[in-house]
Amino acid sequence: MAKWQHTDSNPGKAERHPANFGGNMKFRISLVLLVMALAASSAVTAHASGCTNSTIKGTYAFTIHGQILTPGGPLLVDGIAKTTFDGDGELTQVSAVAINGNIPLIWSPGTGAYSVNSDCTGTMTLISTGQPTLHLAILVSQSGNHIHTVVTDPGFAAASDAERVWAHEDLD
Question: Where are the domains of the chain?
């Protein structure tokens, strides 16, 4: 515990200062500065390499959650998908998505396109037979091992998270 001393002759005043500010506090400040410097250098290194379409070449397992907003009330959406990105902007997918607890087609096939920017943000378009085309904003993280998405079409409040199942080296 820190030792405290009064700085005023009136003991009723609340102003206090630590008597031993030197050693421990200087060490803590130095440690915090070191951690911040290491974190900043890691972020610069990770950002310097940037992202491209090939960053997410491989197969990912997505978990999907959200709602479709309709005049009759929201429809709950929950599902999973296996999506394979070819590294050149094209994708294939199979999904099992429940709408209000009903899955119309298990492992519904789909195709699409994607684009990843150098800052690891991007877009994705999904086309599935009998379903509306979906447009998504994507964020690539963990050196391409995770993808986060949100549907950008009006009337949808749905997002998904994915982790890499197979890397592109396994697909070549």
Answer: 4-49, 53-171
Burial of 162 (0-12, 13-18, 19+ CB in 10 A): buried
Distance CA 26, CA 41 (A): 23
Is CATH 3.40.50.620 the right assignment for the domain spanning 53-171?
no
Distances (CA, A) of 29 to 21, 43, 44: 11, 21, 23
Q: Please tell me the predicted confidence (pLDDT) of residue 166.
A: 79
Tokens 């060490």 belong to 27
Token pair 């390499």: residue: 49
Taking every pair of Cα atoms in the chain, the longest distance, rounded to a whole number of angstroms, is 82
CB under 8 Å to 80, separation ≥6 — which residues?
A: 61, 62, 63, 64, 95, 96, 97
Sequence-separated (6 or more) residues with CB below 8 Å from residue 62: 80, 81, 82, 83, 95, 147, 149, 160, 161, 162
Regions of the chain with pLDDT less than 50: 1-4, 15, 17-21, 40-48
pTM over 0.85: no
